[in-house]
Amino acid sequence: MTETPSTGTQSVVVERDLPHPPEKVWRALTVQPLIEDWLMANDFEPTVGHRFTLRTSPVGGWNGIIDCEVLAVEPPTTLSYSWASMGLRSVITFTVAPTPAGTHLRMVQSGFPSDAVQNIRGAEYGWNNFLNRLEATVAKA
Prior knowledge:
Distance between the termini: 30 Å
CATH topology: Alpha-D-Glucose-1,6-Bisphosphate, Chain A, domain 4
Low-confidence stretches: 1-6
CATH architecture: 2-Layer Sandwich
Helix content: 25-40%
Number of helices: 3
Number of strands: 8
Structural class: alpha+beta
Number of domains: 1
Mean pLDDT: 93
Largest sheet: 8 strands, antiparallel
CATH superfamily: START domain
């Protein structure tokens, strides 16, 4: 978790080194069936301005829907989209960089209010699980 002093918000940062080429990781981040395999059902398109939803099973008082909009697409290095759920809005940014052994993937979810500790912990837990599944998706794709 990192803090952005100028805005008073918190960010969740999760990084992974993957033994696969950046183009393969990029595909898993931007192709609908692959996104569904590691993240959630979706109607994603890698086009700036495209509004899409991520969908999973409802839990408790949550309807299982995350409203998103693509903010940046710079193949094969940067993907960013808004993420709105349960009254909280944040931005997800994936950065893909080549390494001698494959790819370094960095995911940042920014914009958490400083007092949203439970949401931040949930995001840290969730993104670690999602990126574990992403690794498995990339390996078999």
